[in-house]
Amino acid sequence: MSQLPPCPQCQSPFAYEDGAQLVCPECGHEWQPGAEAAAESSREIRDSAGSVLQDGDTVTVIKDLKVKGSSLVVKIGTKVKNIRLVDGDHDIDCKIDGFGAMKLKSEFVKKV
Asked: How high is the pLDDT of residue 37?
């Protein structure tokens, strides 16, 4: 018997095949085998100029950004080194000198 992957939602090891799909009997989730790997590999995050961003890139802020919950402002032209791409609305995780750890939207940065 072949080894089937666990359910991507509840991690149940009891998934079974139903035609071309896999089904989880515990949570009822249905998925295509290998669909998660294809979705992850096709994920591209682009900056404001359309350049593809990668982990470890250096970017520049293209607009003054107010820091929520404080009176600080990240000024235009601020360089941000060694970014990390994450899922979500704010898709860049980084540390900015003088501000600390922050999340940025890729539409407000440009790759250096």
From this structure: 55
Low-confidence ranges of the chain (pLDDT < 70): 1-2, 35-42
Amino acid at 90: H
Helix H or strand E encompassing 85: strand 84-85
What is the structure's pLDDT at 111?
96
SS3 41: helix
At 31-49, the pLDDT tens digits run 887 766 555 555 789 999 9
As a three-state string, the secondary structure of the chain is CCCCCCCCCCCCCCCEEECCEEECCCCCCEECCCHHHHHHHCCCCECCCCCECCCCCCEEECCCEECCCCCCEECCCCEECCCEECCCCCCEEEEECCCEEEEECHHHEEEC
Contact yes or no for 93/103 (Cβ under 8 A):
yes
Residues 65, 104: contact at Cβ < 8 Å? yes
